């Protein structure tokens, strides 16, 4: 079967685009999520054209072989993990930027274009592609679309979904379908474009995307505010949002995260800091916005407020946030990063709850959060060599998701379901929701060949 | 059958919520679209609770009676038109605003809430619900969701879809499903929320919506610019957008529309005006933005540029735009309003083409456009008593849609497909697209009871 598969794949793909050497294909077995099962692919294919992708899907349908689409494998939910005997369909070689239009504020790209490559290319036209997941230097637009990626900018600019106007998609049976539009608006039929965004490669293969762009905003200025309690920091966040401010970034790091960053990078943050808030504005007069927000932080009890005066100082203040995950990884060697999003009015309760969960399980759990969105990343630090600690890490992770749901939130703000959270999806959306999601899946992929075993 | 239907409906609805008198129910037979077939409903139901909606849908499924959901019937595509023997399910009595949260910037509403009612209610909290279809004083949020409504604000604030975070939906069989979230971000499973937005009541009955809100922006200031040709006006639009400006409104009226408004309201616009551009900014310093945009208009050949100095002057300048459709209706008594959206870089070609089409068919066709979005409303003026003119109107309408598609646009930017454009949907999205749209429909509505005969 496998030999037949490879021979058939090679009929429509150049030899170098079909990889079968296990030493090579093993590199394609999983993304960056911890603790997610990953199988051994029968082959990895690296098509360069839409026609080649269609050939792969026709072959897969003919032989009933599952297909796992992949971008840069920077995902954090195992959505790109191989299953045994599957075809891994890597889109990274389809990496052309086909069009950039400053008048229409659109770009047309292939799925393998790296986020940062697109961001820099459009910047040359005075344009801005906002979605900025932490992995933006390596992750691909196709992966961003598959996972509906977020990032630091979302509090002002929203998530990937809001920038996808239209798609070309190769369906499970190899047919090509166009969805959406190239125009600013359009309501012709069901919004299948949005259905594909965040579908984790389970409905079809995105081979081209029309993306919306924004004008390049002014350079943002950052303010850092230190608080004696996470509750005071959350009060400040609520005051900022209730006050009608529109920050371009609003990030929170808890005590554990601040300490880990201090330990790693000796940034000299005071030991009394229980929470560090970072706010940024890319408005015409960011200094005025920082002053207003600084005053709200002080009113909420900030012990220190440091507004940057220029881009260099801003970058320095953001360093602490950028180092957060690395610093937390250094605590115990391994982390399990969660992605629970709650209404921002519930952020303080979420942080309190995570602290209680850490104490209950005897674990270090650091939280950094896209606070303006209520999107927390509680990060469980543990020693992978200690099975009991591993078990407690997994249990605490579940308890954190349960807390998020209890607070009216979602188990995933931006990382997705993949294999990591598929037992939890039903708890969030209920049995009717799961049934209808499965019905949609069956409509597009009747033989269940596209990324099976993910999502539900 | 009909008697049985009414008796069954009355088992779960108060007597006054089931209307069967033809003199009364005939008022519910159609929306505001011209030339769309409309049938005679067997009954009109006006539920006040989710449970009552579920009862209606269970009854409809049991008896296999089609259901046409309705809001305020201000739609322009016939999507809310009754079919013979159907149940018209009017959601207008479910009109409660359930929550408004300034911290979370969300509102939770029932579908029958009128757009303007919500807009005013959230304004009291310093919040802003941007979607502003022309019918905003009467149209309902449920209708806006069903048709994915746009409006004047979209060039800056986007369309209804971008403000719908989560839905409660009664499915065809009466089961209740929740989609989406209450949080700023969330990617748990397929985005069924967006699938329902713009689905024209064909997938389920929206009974509750969680909406995203924005902070109330500063009062906008408006600039009017007159041009000697529509091409010069389109050049100005391209220059404004290419220049990175973010107007809160960017509207264009062609010569025919300007003349019609002049004739109706004696606004004293010069007879040499071939195009009138209106731009607005709700930024912290709108006067500065108007000055910059005014300079771009002059560079593009504007014959006169009039920036408003305050809200009252701004309102005066917008009067011309607000009167446009009424004025065009006065030309020949009847209009057929189209809704073709093209990439804004193609706007000049679209306007030229519509003028050619008007000449070809010997018709007056005025165009006003949400120019910043490339969303044109070519409005065919004709005498309904003249059958030949009616036929030419319909033919010109089709030719305008064909032109829009040829220019890379869509046949509907914001009005939807309904019955008016269903022959055209397939031309836009192709046979594979239609097949997959039908598959999605079948997944949610296997007996095809929800708004049958609409969309495709």
TrEMBL record, chains A, B:
Keyword Oxidoreductase tagged: yes
- Tell me which cofactor or cofactors this protein depends on: FAD
Its name, as the record gives it, is FAD-linked oxidase
Q: Where is the FAD-binding PCMH-type domain?
A: 37-216
Does the keyword Cytoplasm feature in the UniProt annotation?
no
UniProt cross-references to PANTHER family, sorted A to Z: GLYCOLATE OXIDASE SUBUNIT GLCD
> What keywords appear on the UniProt entry?
FAD, Flavoprotein, Oxidoreductase
Entry's transmembrane regions = none
Q: Which Gene3D superfamilies match?
A: 3.30.465.10, 3.30.70.2740, Vanillyl-alcohol Oxidase, Chain A, domain 4 (1.10.45.10)
């Amino acid at each position: 079967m496998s030999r037949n598969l490879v021979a058939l794949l090679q009929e429509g793909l150049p030899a170098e685009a079909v990889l079968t050497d296990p030493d090579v294909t093993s590199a394609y077995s999983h993304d960056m999520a911890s603790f997610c099962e990953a199988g051994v692919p029968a082959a990895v294919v690296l098509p360069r054209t839409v026609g080649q992708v269609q050939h792969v899907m026709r072959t897969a349908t003919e032989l009933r072989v599952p297909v796992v689409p992949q971008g840069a494998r920077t995902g954090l939910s195992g959505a790109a993990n191989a299953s045994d005997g599957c075809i891994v369909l890597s889109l990274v070689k389809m990496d052309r930027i086909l069009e950039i239009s400053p008048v229409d504020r659109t770009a047309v790209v292939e799925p393998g274009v790296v986020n940062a490559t697109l961001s820099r290319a459009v910047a040359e036209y005075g344009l801005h592609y906002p979605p900025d997941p932490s992995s933006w230097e390596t992750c691909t637009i196709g992966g961003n679309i598959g996972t509906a990626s977020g990032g630091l900018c979302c509090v002002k600019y929203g998530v990937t979904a809001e920038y996808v106007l239209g798609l070309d998609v190769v369906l499970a049976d190899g047919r090509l379908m166009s969805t959406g539009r190239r125009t600013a608006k359009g309501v012709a039929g069901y919004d299948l474009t949005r259905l594909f965004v965040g579908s984790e490669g389970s409905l079809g293969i995105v081979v081209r995307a029309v993306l919306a762009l924004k004008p390049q905003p002014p350079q943002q200025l950052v303010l850092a505010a230190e608080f004696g309690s996470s509750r005071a920091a959350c009060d400040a966040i609520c005051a900022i949002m209730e006050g009608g401010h529109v920050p371009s970034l609003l990030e929170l790091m808890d005590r554990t995260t601040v300490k880990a960053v201090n330990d790693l990078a000796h940034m000299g943050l005071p030991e009394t800091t229980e929470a560090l808030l970072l706010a940024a504005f890319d408005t015409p007069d960011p200094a005025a916005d920082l002053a207003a927000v600084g005053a709200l932080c002080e009113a909420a009890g900030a012990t220190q407020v440091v507004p940057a005066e220029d881009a260099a100082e801003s970058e320095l203040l953001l360093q602490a946030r950028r180092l957060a995950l690395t610093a937390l990884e250094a605590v115990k060697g391994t982390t399990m990063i969660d992605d629970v999003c709650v209404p921002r009015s519930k952020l303080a309760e979420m942080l309190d709850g995570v602290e209680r969960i850490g104490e209950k399980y005897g674990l270090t759990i650091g939280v950094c959060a896209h606070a303006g969105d209520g999107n927390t990343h509680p990060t469980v630090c543990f020693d992978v060599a200690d099975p009991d600690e591993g078990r407690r890490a997994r249990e605490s992770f579940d308890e954190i998701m349960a807390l998020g749901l209890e607070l009216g939130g979602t188990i995933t703000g931006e990382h997705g379901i993949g294999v990591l959270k598929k037992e939890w999806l039903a708890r969030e959306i209920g049995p009717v929701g799961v049934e209808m999601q499965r019905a949609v899946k069956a409509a597009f992929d009747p033989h269940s060949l596209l990324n099976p075993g993910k999502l539900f």
